[in-house]
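target protein:
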Amino acid sequence: MIERIAQDLTAAMKAQDAARTSVLRMAKAALKNREIDKKAPLEEAEAAKVLQSLVKQREDSIEQFQKAGRLELVEKESAEMAVLKGYLPQEASPEAIAAAVEQAVAETAATSPKDMGKVMKAALGILQAGGKPADGKKVSDTVKKRLGG
């Protein structure tokens, strides 16, 4: 993933695609900073987490810009988010999230909203093991519905 971003950055620079170049530079810098913090090369899963956090930042920004009526910034952030999502593995579908939550509830014998932490941890682990990462908020909402929270 990291090499692909570097190659695509070079291609975007040669094509003089300013918007794509900007996003890829930002992603490469975030990955490099995480690598420096870790003091070791990043694994694929760690790189994906860094990119997921960048996507999450874009989602939050889009929400704020929409509230403020700044549609030009919404478009810019949406375009950046689309580029970043192109490097992430396919996200889990709502059905896959629901199935993972059901399996996690069965494994943890959860019965009430008090057990939400255990179920969240188990469900995210199940989804991660299946190679389908999921947004924690979506999983959290599904767990709340299931446990009646």
